[in-house]
Amino acid sequence: MLQRTIDRVTRTPALGPGFDGERHKAALVVAPGDLPSTDPFFLMADDNITLEGPFGEAHPHAGLETVTFMLHGTMEDSGGRLEEGDVEWMTAGSGIVHAENARVSTGMRLLQLWLLLPEKQRNMAPRVQILRKGAMPVHVEPGVSATLFSGDLAGLTAPTMNAVPVTLIDDRLEAGAAFEPRFPATYNAFAVMLDGQVTAGNNAETLRVGDVGWTRPAGDEESSLRLQAGDVGARLLLYAGQPQNVSAVARGPFIAGSHEELAGYYAAYRQGKFPHAGAMRPVTLS
Question: Where does this protein have coiled-coil stretches (predicted)?
Fold first, then answer.
């Protein structure tokens, strides 16, 4: 069993202006531009709303998956409603338009991750999965509650359909509690600290609120990442996924394998060929 270390720690910057006026503040938890270090994770945004109302406009995606984790509040659009603790796992694939007539509550906060798709599945048919918090398997041990939204954990398997092999765990630890989730050593992984403090990895790296701790792939066996909470407990999200090692050409809301494919996405969108998420029947895991 490979005991993982935390290889690097990045710091989420302070919230700044978002795309939707003064009531919207945002920051990049995972910044794009260093794919060799973050693969299969392309970017992650932290979106915060101070006043309820409409949120953004309908827009397209293609060539990627988005994983939207509702930390606080609610968001509703023509495709459905996300409550606090729910996750929307949207596979854009060959193209989709979503966030139509979106409305959010006061105090809404979400994390949205962009995932690379495997080359052979980059243009798969789009789909939307709504992962209800209450329907996800939960691993419990003394001082630990770990909700599994994707992948495997301690004999549990999430019902999520994955194009990219990904483990997503919402970890809550009481003061002093230790937890050691396992996942393949081939996975790239990062932990986003939401509350409290932990020491993480075989090197006992201290992670605090706002820190992002990364542990890179290291072989082809099973691996584990030790987490121990500080005096006030901790909450963190752990994302671990199989690197895709593919060429990526990104612009706007699209990730393609070539400039020609990227141009094809833009042409298909302008020609109205992308289905609308609101007209699709999402797979609700509840």
Answer: none
